[in-house]
Every structure is written in C-alpha cells, then in structure tokens.
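Q: Give me the 3D complex with FE2/S2 (inorganic) cluster.
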Amino acid sequence: MANQPEEDFKIEFKRSGITATWNRSVENILELAEDAGVKADSSCQSGTCHTCLVRVLAGTFEYADDDVFEPDGEDEILICSAQPTSNMVIDL
Ligand code: FES
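A: Here is the predicted complex, encoded as structure tokens.
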C-alpha cells in the first residue's frame, strides 16, 4: 500500500530543450533544473519572492510547504518550492 506513486516524472524544460527525470530524492523543480544545466532565476528559495516564477505548459504539481505565496495564475509555478505530480512541460 504505497501512499505516494513511486514513479519518476519527465520534466521538459521547453525553451532550454532539455528534459530531466524527477524522482523523490530531488527537493524541487528548481534543483532539478539547475542539476540539468537549465538556467533558472531564483532568490529566496522559499516561495516568497516570486523570482523563480515560470509558466507551466503541461502537467500538474504541488507545493510541499504551506507557507508558499502561490501565484494567482493557474499556469504559473514557483519552481523553488514545487514538486511535480505528473510529467510536466515548463516554459523555461
Ligand atoms: S526563489 Fe523566491 S519564490 Fe522561488
């Protein structure tokens, strides 16, 4: 009885032309992007400043921390604080 899916997700960074595989050892999408060589802006890394905000082109995600100031747009994501819940395509 697994609570969480064990599967890995493919995260496509569309503008960079890079696809990386997310697994649960990666803390957030920003970390995945940086490890894959995708250039991403960030500052607070805690879901407050919105420096890391980018558009989601496909897929779903969640924030692990309740303190995140979530953006208004449904297609906007704070990658410093988000984890994917499906394969994703991100405008980065
Ligand atoms: S780096 Fe500040 S909200 Fe993501």
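A quick observation: The chain has one domain: 9-90.
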